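User: I need a structural model of histidine kinase from Litorilituus lipolyticus for a docking pre-check later this week. Nothing fancy, just the predicted structure tokens so I can convert them on my end. Input:
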Amino acid sequence: MKTESLSFAHKVLEAVDDAYFEWHPLKDVVVYSAKLMSLLGYENETYIDSSALLARHIEQEDFDEFIDQLKKHLKGVIQKIDITLPIKTKFEKSMWVHCVARVVEHSEGDASLLFGTVRDISATKQMMHQLKKQNDWLMFAERISNAGHWRYDIEQETLTWSAEIFRIHNLETNDFTPTIHKAVDLFIAKDRPKIRTMMNNAIHHHQAFQIKSCLLLANNIKRKVELNAEIERDALGNPKAIFGVYKDITRSENMFEKLKLLAMVNFTIRVPIFFIDDNDNVVYQDISPHYDEESSVLFNYINFSITEYMEFKKHAKEKGQIKQTNVSFDKYNSVFDLSVTYEAQEGIYIWIVENVTEKFRKEQQQIISNRLALLGNTFGNVSHDINNVLGVALGAIEMLELKFTRGEKDISTYIDRVKNAIDKGKDVTERLLAFTRKPTVKVVTFDPIQEILDNQYLFKQLLLSTINIQFKFEQLQCMINFPQGEFINILLNIVLNAQDAIQEKGLSGQIEISANLIEGNRLEIHVKDSGIGIENENLTKIFDPFYSSKSVNKGNGIGLANVYSTMYKHNGQIQVEGKSDLGGAHFTLIFKCKELHETYLPQNSNNEFLSYQNTNILVLDDEVSIAEFVALFLESKGANVVVANNKFELIERLSNDAAFDIFITDMILPDLSGKEAVNMVKEKFPAIKVYSISGYIAIEDRSWDYPVLRKPFNSKELAEFLSM
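Assistant: Understood. Predicted structure tokens for histidine kinase:
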């Protein structure tokens, strides 16, 4: 409710600046002055209400503190209520007020009237808060920079330190009162006279100074510091104090020493070094071994862009250090070896760059020469292998021709030899692929002794008639897991090398192949010869791909380097001795094996059980003979086969009413690709099963979703392929 009239006392109080209130505790009636009501956000009129109005503008915790002081005052514990607290106005505006109140009247021994004033101190509180915040920022900045400030009052002769200087000295503020004398004594002995002289000159002659020195802490620990001082003057220019900064430079000085050492090491080889901080400023340039006016800027030395520079900084900061060799930023007109190390403690990037353009060009020329040499050696070796295979096939065909002219019917042996020779030729082309990409290797389980016996004729046919080869095997049966074709190729390689070694001594000689089992389920196959042997100093070189003691036209098969690699990849070992009991070298091949106590019976071929009875198959291949072979084989298995040799014939076959279950296509044809052919067929027969064949062994299309059979292939391989 509003009052009807005001007493004279109230009129006087309204004239002062402070807002006030009267509180009648016995009735809980509060008279709020007009200024107090205005302060709380109401109309500028005196108002009478209970204490609840005041409570609405004060947090409960603060109001409880006010009531607590009131109780203590009423009991005489404290002379008055004196409290600073935050309030919220009617419009939720935050303010700070200072309230002072005292009991002024009593009734029958009880307090009957409490009078108080309320002052808005928001501006003062804000200023104090800002000053505290700035002081906190200053302390935080000092902590980050490892620096503190100090001040010596010339008139009062007093020295004050900031908290960070106490921390630098490992001292507590309560345990140490700084003076000039005490402060100087904290430095190492040899620097104390100089520091005292500088302080005296600053005090009496008003001279600023700067010095680096060491503090001697407990346990003889030294801390490097930098001391800077300036003269503080009053408005008239008279000196009043010395103000200084005290900086802990231990880490930076240690870093500087490390950088100097690094520069001294690199100075001998004149490798340019650039020390650049986080803000891209050049630092410590004077210790760079290449320092001069023109090359002291990184961008004057290495011609990269700002974007590339920032990327190097980013990765160096993430990883600590990055190194790149043979990097260029101008299409290899200039080439650099580049190292960027980020020293996180000091925020410094150390750039070590070396122009290696000439070295790079020489290396590239050498690499090209080596590759050409390897390529020539490889093709020489491959041609040697292919000639051997063709020799076997040609000899077998000539024997077939003689048998045919004589009317003899027993020609199966020579047919098998032709087929075997073609298989070996296929192995040669697959090995050639190993020089360009990782080949697909099929590991099989077989009896290695039986494999050698089955191929005796191949060894004998490839060797000169003057060289006697003997096979000496114990009564043993075992199985190994190894690429079957590679097994014989490795032995042929070693045997042909043995023949070349024998020819170094003369035309005739002896080669012996034997085998035995050793402990640990391992099979040893020995190849000895009567050739010139291998000198001890060359034993470590013979598996080097660039080493050969023979002319290229003699060849070395797939090369002993590939022999070693193949054995290693398939958990085998190869050992060599320079001399054997036959006089020449002794090679030992070691395989993990499983010994058998009964004769091994190989699994029946898929060829035997493959059946395509009443299956319609479409075959597409531009090689007529291959298409006819596939068709003839599938027809023997009961299939109905339709053949196309080009795009035109494929379209014609698809236009007929026949429905096909399987489509077998070459991957590359003169007038369309395998993908195009498959798309044409699947458009009409979406559920058709697709197989592909290809003679391009170097092509590997990862987007091709269908199985591929490499040419050439025989009926057994075709059957296994189609049964997948």
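Before docking, keep this in mind: Residues 1-6, 435-439 have pLDDT under 50 and may be disordered.
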